[in-house]
Prior knowledge:
The structure is a homotetramer.
Chain A: H1 3-21, H2 28-35, H3 39-45, H4 49-69, H5 78-95, H6 97-107, H7 110-121, H8 127-140, H9 149-168, H10 176-190
Chain A binds a DNA duplex through helix 2 and helix 3.
Amino acid sequence: MTKPDKRNYIVQSALELFAKHGFHGAPMTMIAERAGVGVGTIYLYFETKDVLINELHQELEEKMYPFLLNGYADNAPIRRRFFNIYTSLLRYFIQFPLDFRYLEQFYNSPYGVAFRRVKLMGNKTGRSDVFDELFEEGTEWQVFKDLPPVILLALAFGPLLTVARDHILGFVHLDDTMIDRTINACWDAVRR
Amino acid sequence: MTKPDKRNYIVQSALELFAKHGFHGAPMTMIAERAGVGVGTIYLYFETKDVLINELHQELEEKMYPFLLNGYADNAPIRRRFFNIYTSLLRYFIQFPLDFRYLEQFYNSPYGVAFRRVKLMGNKTGRSDVFDELFEEGTEWQVFKDLPPVILLALAFGPLLTVARDHILGFVHLDDTMIDRTINACWDAVRR
Amino acid sequence: MTKPDKRNYIVQSALELFAKHGFHGAPMTMIAERAGVGVGTIYLYFETKDVLINELHQELEEKMYPFLLNGYADNAPIRRRFFNIYTSLLRYFIQFPLDFRYLEQFYNSPYGVAFRRVKLMGNKTGRSDVFDELFEEGTEWQVFKDLPPVILLALAFGPLLTVARDHILGFVHLDDTMIDRTINACWDAVRR
Amino acid sequence: MTKPDKRNYIVQSALELFAKHGFHGAPMTMIAERAGVGVGTIYLYFETKDVLINELHQELEEKMYPFLLNGYADNAPIRRRFFNIYTSLLRYFIQFPLDFRYLEQFYNSPYGVAFRRVKLMGNKTGRSDVFDELFEEGTEWQVFKDLPPVILLALAFGPLLTVARDHILGFVHLDDTMIDRTINACWDAVRR
DNA sequence: GATGAATGAGCGTTCATTCAT
DNA sequence: AATGAATGAACGCTCATTCAT
């Protein structure tokens, strides 16, 4: 097992356990055991549990971003871009349910709130940029309803999160058709 | 202090502390202290901390239900009923941010998942009934899009949760106009 | 076992273990076990291990103080007072070797240094008062050598500490005669 | 870097860190880092941390010994020899506060107690020899009080340790005059 | 010889739960 | 019914020591 391997095993183990049991339901010892390393080893790569949680979030965002941008064209019509990116997002959630469950926990915790607060104040690089751009442009061209960006975002993001969770928990099954119809409904919500 | 009084103090204290600090950030001793009772007393009314968490949820739903149904008329047009109930819901969240924060945590935890699983399987009384009825009828009359009820629910619920949280966290301010526009957007999402 | 009993068992256990093994050689679990209580119980009486260490020191000083002042007369000649208090001190160390070993560790650690620093700056109540008085008066009356109080103190305290330790470790045996001769020698050191 | 160089860097680093932070406040990794070597390297030269601590003590004594004997003449009068050696000792402590702090910690720990026990039983070479000789001869010639050597030693050593510590901690300033007066006072303590 | 990533026993501390009063 | 002192398993984290390279 080479050095970066070990870090990956830890990250993967943490992802799975945090996703399944929540942050405080997954002790460091359990993460270490599942990763096949000693507890101390985790602390070679992550200063504290908090750091592990935050870096995991960052890695996930970095992994998700290119996934969302796949096939995305800056100059395509807004509607197309909307469909493209939200379909990608929902597919991503479905394809990587662990990531989704993790991110949900993250944003629903002091970690995520702190993160959003920072993000909404200073404008950081990362996921929101492309979403922000889309909504700004759509508002400017009067394609979208006259609502604050935060609410427009909520109208599209909110249902997707709910729907993805329901799918993962088995309460509904999202095939391609259903995904498309769902995104369509979100589009109806935001478009003028 | 009569018996049910004590129970109420405990419930209120638990609500506030869970809402503010999360389930594992609120020790039983702290709950007892704020409620003005001994720790042991809590265990007279609630077998374990888990039971307390679940019963708190149930009480909140029971409190919310009449609030939502205020002014609700079974025989009103579907659109009106939709606006009525979702506006009530969003107002409730805004008016009782503690309740909202609590419920959010609850549904975003193993407690809530278990609860929903039970609810969606067997047919329970409770909140979803009136929503279910609304969506069933709306689908039947072809007012709503041809989507599974779970997804229709998500299209209206999802944004409301997101938007309520953003309001409580101070990321956006929801006044009456904004609430109305938001519900309108949700209506656009579900209506055919 | 009544409530204050428990605290006493803890204090006694901590004293013995700190004296024998040093602060970091005596884990809280070991202290609890020897005291016949659960670990958590210690934390009912002492906020942290540091607090336990500091309160133990304070209790010891409070216990020692009346012991030193036994038979001490403010208006006796300086020489008599000197003999009285230093004989008492040495006897105390010999009679309570645990206390001595504990205090030695305490003053030889960041805890003790911090304590002395505070004491030498602001003038606190406690042990040093009577010693200080003695040296001030003795200097004023030109009974003592013309040296800073800190050094006069060292000339009497230093050998006593060394000698007490040697006695406790069994390197020398201090009977009454030997104690008297030792104090006499200290007197020769400080007197003009 | 030649082999003995590495050992020296380790020893120096250990001295500084033990002196500043105490034995258990100075992890092996920290010692290695400051020495500019790998942790494993320390274990090439010292079997365990305990061995490192003990060998460090031995090296310090070996360094101190010639320092004390500087200008010391076996055939000089006892008084002169006394002044010579104790002045040297106090100067050494002041000039090498790191050494002093280290030695203080050492003698105030199980390490030091074990060391002294061995020394007082068997007859070892080292520091005490010249002190022992001095006190034996002084007692024989009736220059010193009729006290066991251990106590005579304590009467001179004790104040010096206390006074050196107070100087290093900044509680008093020892210039040449003060050093001389202090040694004088010690002489008064031991001389008949 | 030299390294430093890896280890896991052991630390100080917390907190859901119990039970004698 | 009501209490809160008492408990100890379990937590996050540290660090002396090892060993493959």
